Amino acid sequence: MAIAKAERLMNLALCLLGTRRPLSKRELRDSIEAYVEAFGPGGRSAGSDDSFNRMFERDKDDLRELGLVIETVENLDGEVGYLARRDSNRLPPITLDAEEAAALGLAAKVWQQARLAGAASGALQKLRAAGLPEDVDPYGGHSALEPRIPAHEASFEPLMLACRDRRPVVFDYRKATAARPEQRHVEPWALECWRGHWYLAGWDRDRGAERVFRLSRITGKVRARAGKYTADVPDVVTVRETVASWAGETADRTALIRLRTDAGYPLRAKAVAVRELGDGWEELEIPYGHGLDAWLVEFGPDVVVLEPAELRADVVDRLRAVAKG
Predict the structure, then answer these.
(1) Is the C or the N end of the chain the one with fewer CB within 10 Å?
(2) What pLDDT is stored for residue 20 in this prediction?
(3) Is 42 exposed, middle or buried (0-12, 13-18, 19+ CB in 10 A)?
(4) Rounded Cα gap, residues 186 and 229, in angstroms
(5) Strands (E), 51-181
(6) Per DSSP, what are the bridge partners of residue 305?
(7) 194-229, pLDDT tens digit by residue?
């Protein structure tokens, strides 16, 4: 049904763009195969005329929503006709300087996904056709820049489409401190990449609150669900800020930990002070913020929290929960 409607709309648009004079409803009905197959030629019956008129009005409104400028013209006999003038449906000339062209070229190189790479390449070709000068090389002078946004997780594409279409989803999610995944019902808002990892922000229906999910911890397939969102989508979704605060990036105090030598390099990168302890251990002072306990648990037996006491207790509780399964 969706394909048939798309074909009908395309044929109607071509008719309206291809005519030099306004076409009446009757002429459009007799010219477009989908209308003839559904309702027969004009004037067959009052019932078919009414059905055709409703469909035509819907199709015309859909084309206008897509951006097609359709004019309604009344001739001397009072008959109404329709046409879409090409000069009214043509983009103005696009002029880009070398830096703007380079920015577009780099943006097109960012995506390595098959689906998104094709869209980015196609957009760049359309800009060429619309006026981007052929002598401007989008990559020239910037060949040393090789931006990449990897998205290897199988859940990336279905979640991207769900965010775009505002569709609720269901997936199994394994928290860092859990032995087994659990099902989550989520209204997805936005996807964002932070330090090489993709995160989804959305409304967790089971918990009745906003949550951020790391895509690498989603197991199995992401399944779309019918129905509308139950929570309002915020104007600004702060994925990076939320993840950064959980990782201790916005910490205003420090914690003291013991770390095995040659282990936990991400922790070493954050350390504000390091002291050798001997016997294969070092003492690190690291920023302490919300969510640091969950992050430290990921390093297992390579990390021992010394202080503060509440952080040590939180880490021990999480490790015991994992051990119990």
Answers:
(1) N
(2) 86
(3) middle
(4) 9
(5) 71-74, 80-83, 169-173
(6) 257
(7) 766 788 889 999 999 888 898 989 998 999 998 889
The beta strand positions in the chain, using DSSP E, are 71-74, 80-83, 169-173, 182-194, 197-204, 209-214, 218-224, 253-260, 273-278, 281-288, 303-307
Name the strands in the sheet holding 253-260, side by side, starting at the edge strand that comes first in the sequence.
273-278, 281-288, 253-260, 303-307
CB of 171 closer than 8 Å to CB of 186:
yes
CA–CA separation, 146 vs 71, rounded Å?
47
**Cis peptide, bond prior to residue 22, ω within 30 of zero:** no
**Amino acid 104: pLDDT:** 67
Inform me whether the pLDDT recorded for 145 exceeds 50: no
Helix (H, G, I), strand (E, B) or coil at 35: helix
This prediction's pTM: 0.45
pLDDT, residue 141, reads 47
The DSSP letter of residue 301 is: G
Q: H or E element: which one contains 267?
A: helix 265-270
CA 85 to CA 68: how far, in whole Å? Answer: 10
Predicted confidence at residue 110, as pLDDT, reads 58
